[in-house]
Citrate transporter-like domain-containing protein
Amino acid sequence: MTQLAPLPKVILGSLAFGVFWMLAVFPSVPFLPIGRTAGALLGGVLMIVFHVISPDDAYASIDLPILGLLFATMVVGGYLKGAGMFKHLGALLAWRSQGGRDLLCRVCVVTALASALFTNDTCCVVLTEFVLELAAERNLPAKPFLLALATSANIGSSATPIGNPQNLVIAFNSKITFLQFFFGILPAMLAGMGVNTVMLLCMYWKELEGASPDEVAAVKEMEAVEEGRSPAPAATVLSLANINNKSPAAVHGAAGLRLRRNGDGDDGEESVMSENISTKHRWFMQCSEKRRKLFLKSFAYVVTVGMLVAYMLGLNMSWTAITTAIALVVVDFRDAEACLDKVSYSLLVFFSGMFVTVSGFNKTGLPGAIWNFMAPYAKINHVSGVTVLSLIILLLSNLASNVPTVLLMGDEVAASAATISASAVTRSWLLLAWVSTVAGNLSLLGSAANLIVCEQARRAQRNAHDLSFWSHVVFGVPSTLIVTAIGIPLIGKINI
């Protein structure tokens, strides 16, 4: 039974958490425009200054495995991007695409399925800029696709123990096997993915009209010509040929200039020989570079598949990802600074501050007090009890984040279900996994995936977009409530 801390600690801890929450929601408030990352650090510092949490406990509350996993996936994502994986994914998404609505459906499906295998955070790290580029190429608004990416990543990640951190905690504490977990939530995940996609289409139907295929092709051709990746149109080539058409005398003069540059007699022959040697050297260098790139691409794909297999075998996710990242760095055999510079360190700092702030808020006892008050009404063998339990999980997941919520409520929910039956215990863990994960779609602060999409989109080099708190809430609230409600009756329907 969780007890409230002394009143001054509750007040000061709630104040510090309120400062963090305000700056996370409104990163540029006029009276304190320090941004989301500095706001998270400020919340953590206030927790220590107010003696809500000790410095040692603050450092201990920082979840290094999650930070390591996030850092490593950013590095791996950089190498996969260099290997052209996301160009192939782009071809898959764009192949015979029938417009913006069809593309949105593909983004939802691909993101959901990939998140179940590669974690939602990983998919959001590596796909955000890519999805923005796809939208820009088709003259489509960025917001629907960012919402599709974030919400589908959360829904899809609910299906496996490796989909997100809270599922890992649940799988470890409940001793549910990978296949039991997967088949127990799969029907809810598929139904939720479909409903979420339909809601996105309904809300942004008109905005997803975009440009016609001919207009998109014309834009791509113009960009290719400007960047020198494609020859100019035939009319342009013909006009240039007419402009550059010279008389025989001019051509002869140019040949004479070349002779003068090369010199006469033996000197000219030596110049030709050296030019031939230089050409052969460049050809060998180009062949070697092509082979090197082909090997690196193949290696990147192989180790990524190996990383996925290691996840399924139950190896430590964080160190598996770090090992994969270091293997890519070593095999690349070049200074890794260019790749490491692409890591969003401000995002890692933000999460560090958030961990300290949330840990301090939990020490006030308020999240636990909410459960103590509502537990008698949250029995899993009644529809009303499941409804109350789901609302509690939704609330706490958005106030204190989903991982602390799972850590706080897991044992209590399982103990309450144990008084009913053994199957009820398994269903209670799966229900906790489903609701706490989908709860991440309620607001930007609901999950790390949302924050990753928001920060990556804001820093994107092309088609950057600032996904605000309110623009997310307008879709996130109805989507979360409906998807959660539809998925709950389907939890545990398939038993393995």
User: Anything to note?
Assistant: Residues 222-227, 232-265 have pLDDT under 50 and may be disordered. The chain has 23 helices and no strands. Residues 265-312 form the longest helix (48 residues). The radius of gyration is 28 Å.
